[in-house]
Amino acid sequence: MKNTVTLTDNRNGKSYEFPILDGTLGPSVIDISNLYKDTNMFTFDRGYTSTAMCRSEITFIDGAKGELKYRGYDIDWLAKNKIFLDVIHLLLHKKLPNQVELSEFRTRLKMRSFINEKMMSLFSAFPDRAHPMAVLQACVANLSAYYKRDMNFDDPVEYMELAERLVAKMPTLAAFYHRYTMGYPFIYPDLDRGFTENFLYMMRSFPHSHVNISPIEVKALDTVLMLHADHEQNASTTTVRTVGSTHSHPYSCVSAGIGALWGHAHGGANEGVIKQLEEIGSVDNVDKYIKKAKDKNDPFRLMGFGHRVYKNYDPRAKVLKSLRDELIDEIGIDSNLIKIANKIEKIVSEDDYFISRNLYPNVDFNSGLILKALKIPTAMFAVMFVIGRVPGWMAQWMELKEQDTIKIVRPRQLYVGPSSQNKDENLEKSNIEFSSSKDR
Ligand code: SDX
C-alpha cells in the first residue's frame, strides 16, 4: 500500500499524488510542498486549522483526549514530581536534569538574572500607566542590543547562552517594571532564593525588611509557570518561528512573540477572565452572560473557555483547578469569584451550545484566580504567561536553528481584489509635486 493520497481535479480529471508523513504521535500529515508546482493551486486554510508548519520534538497535544506532553513527559506527572526549573532544563537541554545538573543550571540562571544597569533608564521612558506587556516587549528587544555585538547566534553553545540569559532575566524585567510603576525601590535578585521564589521576592520585598513568602505560594506560582512553558505551534510560538525564519535576532523573535501573546484571544485571556468574573460580580448575573456568550450577534465570549486544539478539558486547567481548590484555605482566594467561576463551569458543562462546540475551560480559566490570590496585579497576568512561555519559545527557536534548511515563512493568498483599474480614463493624472524647494 503506497503511503500517499491522490488529489483529483474534477474540472479536468487530472490526478496528483502527495506523500503521507507519519509522526511518532498524533495525526499524519500530507506533504503538499509540491502542490503549487504540480497543480498551480494553493491550499486555503484560515487560521491554519488543518496545517502543520514544521516538524517538532518538543511538545505534543492530544486535543481529543486532553493530553499534553513536554518531550514525552505527561504534564500531570511533571506537575506532581518536578519543578519549573526541571521543565526549563528539559525544554532547552532536551533532558530532565539530575541533581548536579539542576544545581549547576540554577546557579547559571541566578548569575544571569541581573540586567545591565544601563537598561534601568529604559523604564523611565514609559508613562506610569503603560501596559506591562508593552514594556516587556520593548525591554526584550532592547536586550538584543546588549547581547548581539559579541554573540554568534549561529553557534549552538552561544545561542544556548542567549536562551538561558533571557529565561533568567524575564522575571527581573517584569518585577522591576512593577516596582517602577509603584514608585518602589528596585529589589535585585537574591542569590540565596530559588528561581520562582525570587520573582515573588523582587515583587514584594522592601530594603532591610522581612518579606513574607509561603512555600505554598512558591509551589502555586511554580506550577502555573510550568503549565505555560510550551504548547506546540500556538499563535505566539508561530510568531517566534516566523520571525526566526528570517534569521532575525532571537530576542527580536521573542519580542514579537510577546506582542502576539498579548491579545485577549491568546495570552491576554487570563486577565480577561478576572475582569469578566469581576464584571459579572454575582452568581445571580451568570445566566445573563451565558446568554450573551451564546448570542451569535454578540461578540462577547466567555474568557477562559474554548481552544483551537483541545476539544476536551485542557489538562492544564485540570491541574490548576485542583491547585486552586488546594489554595482556597491556604492563601484565601476570592470566594465570590470562585462561586461565579464554578457556576459558569457547571452551566457550560451542561449546555448544548458549549457541548456541541467542545468548549471546555482552558489554561486561563483558573490561572487568573491563582495569580490574583498571589497578589500579582491583574495587568501583569499576561506577563506571568510570558515568564512561563519563554523557555518554550527559546526551545522552538533553537529547534528551528538546528533544522538543516530554515525555510523563510511566506504563505500565499486567495486574491479577491480588482483585476485591473488603471485603464479607467476618468481618473485625473495626479499632479505630483516633484518640484524642488528652489522652484517654489
Ligand atoms: C490560549 O493555541 C494555544 O495553544 C493557545 C494557548 C497556549 O498555551 O499557547 O493554549 C493559550 O490562548 C488559550 C485560549 C485563551 N483564549 C480564551 O480563553 C478566549 C476565549 N476563547 C476563544 O476566543 C476561542 O475559543 C479561541 C480563540 C481560544 C479558539 O478559537 P477557534 O479555535 O478559532 O474557535 P472558533 O472561534 O472557530 O469558535 C468555534 C465556535 C464558534 O461558534 P460557531 O461559529 O460555530 O457558532 O465556538 C464558539 C465560536 O463563536 N466559541 C465560543 C467561545 N470560543 C469559541 N463561544 C463563546 N465563548 C467562547 N469562549
Automatic annotation (TrEMBL):
Per UniProt, the ranges with Basic and acidic residues bias are: 422-440
- A GO BP annotation: tricarboxylic acid cycle
Catalysed transformations (reactions): oxaloacetate + acetyl-CoA + H2O = citrate + CoA + H(+)
Family as reported in the entry's similarity comment: Belongs to the citrate synthase family.
Q: Which NCBIfam families does the entry link to?
A: cit_synth_I, PRK05614.1
One matching Pfam family is Citrate_synt
What InterPro entries does the record tag this protein with?
A: Citrate_synth-like_lrg_a-sub (IPR016142), Citrate_synth-like_sm_a-sub (IPR016143), Citrate_synthase (IPR002020), Citrate_synthase_AS (IPR019810), Citrate_synthase_bac-typ (IPR024176), Citrate_synthase_sf (IPR036969), Citrate_synthase_typ-I (IPR010953)
Q: Which PROSITE patterns would you find in this protein's record?
A: CITRATE_SYNTHASE
| Cellular component terms (Gene Ontology) | cytoplasm
PANTHER family (alphabetical): CITRATE SYNTHASE
Q: What is this protein called?
A: Citrate synthase
The record's SUPFAM superfamilies line, in alphabetical order, gives:
Citrate synthase (SSF48256)
* MF GO annotations: citrate synthase activity
Catalytic residues identified in the record: H307, D364
Q: Where is this region: Disordered?
A: 418-440
Pathway info: Carbohydrate metabolism; tricarboxylic acid cycle; isocitrate from oxaloacetate: step 1/2
Q: Which UniProt keywords apply?
A: Acyltransferase, Transferase, Tricarboxylic acid cycle
